Amino acid sequence: MTTDELRQSYLDFFVSKGCVLKPSDVLVPRDDPTVLFTPAGMNQFKREFMGLGDPTFKKAVTCQKCLRTGDIDNVGRTAFHETFFEMLGNFSFGDYFKREAIHWAWEYLTKILKIDPDRLSVTVYLDDDEAFAIWNNEIGLPSSRITRMDEADNFWPASAPSLGPNGVCGPCSEIFFHGNGPKEVEIWNLVFTQFNRVGFRQLEPLPHKNIDTGMGLERAAACLQGVPTVFMTDLFRPIVARVAEVLDQPYQADSPDGVRMRRMADHARALTFCIHENVRPSNEKQGYVLRRLLRRAVLDGYHLGRREPFLYQLPPIVAQQMSGPYPEVVGSVPRIQAVIREEEEDFLRNLEHGMKLLEDTFRKTKAAGSDVLDGSTAFKLHATHGIPIEVVESLAAERELTVDRPGFEAAVEEHARISRGTSEAAAVFEVGPLDELKKAHPQGTRFLGYETTRATGKVIGLIQGPALVDSVAAGTGDHAQAAIVLDQSPFYGESGGQVGDTGRLTGPDGFLFLVTDTQKKNDFLLHLGRVEHGAIVPGATVEAEVDAERREAIRRAHSATHLLHHALHKHLGEHAQQAGSKVEPDRLRFDFANPEAVGRDRLKAIEATVNNLVLGDAPITWTIMPLDQARKLGAMALFGEKYPENVRVVTMGDYSRELCGGTHLDHVSQIGVFAILSEESVAAGTRRITALTGRAALDYLKERDAVLEEIAATLKVPVAQAPARVAALLEEVKTLKKQATQRKSAQTLGSIDSFLNEAVEVDGVQLVARVIDGGTVEEMRQLCDVMRKKAGERLAILLGSVVEGKVNLVAAFTPDLVAQRKANAGQWLKILAPIVGGGGGGKPEMATAGGKLPDKLPEVVRRAPETLRDVLSS
Question: Where's the Alanyl-transfer RNA synthetases family profile domain (predicted)?
Answer without folding.
Answer: 1-703
